């Protein structure tokens, strides 16, 4: 169930999904409990609470999410290092299927509850 109101002018997305290769996922996301150099719309910063990860091939699924502790702005405008408050949480993989138009190729905003309720990737994002 979606608990946050979505409006056409500014949806209240609480999660950003990032694509990750195995090295970045294991060493940085899990190992260092952070995500580096993430492009985030400044207006969305107050609403974001989680970073979920879509592991690229061969996994091709959203597999974890982590609660955001804080953002560290970088010199490049709109870029942040994101630090987590705790170890990322593993979830049942939300896989890419034939029902999906495309895999996650860049950061995408959504709502954590959509991810937790999804059976395949297309259901993890608002339509």
Protein traits:
7 strands, 12% helix, 2 helices, disordered N terminus, mainly beta
Task: Describe the overall structure.
The chain has two helices and seven strands. It has 127 residues and is mainly β. Strands 1, 2, 3, 4, 5, 6 and 7 form a seven-stranded mixed β-sheet that branches. The longest helix is centred in the N-terminal third of the chain and has 9 residues, at 22-30. Residues 1-7 have low confidence and may be disordered.
Main beta-sheet strand count, sense and barrel state: 7 strands, mixed
Distance between the termini: 15 Å
- The topology string of helices and strands comes to EHEEEEEEH
Task: Name the structural class.
Answer: mainly beta
Bin the helical content: 10-25%
Contiguous low-pLDDT stretches (5 residues minimum) are 1-7
Q: Mean pLDDT, as a whole number?
A: 89
**Structural domains: how many:** 1
The portion of residues forming beta strands comes to 35-45%
Query: What is the strand tally?
Result: 7
Task: Tally the helices.
Answer: 2
The best one-word shape is: globular
Q: What is the gyration radius calculated from CA atoms?
A: 14 Å
What's this entry about, in short?
The protein is mainly beta and 127 residues long. It has helices at 22-30, 112-117; strands at 15-20, 34-39, 50-55, 61-73, 79-84, 89-95, 108-110. It has one domain (15-124).
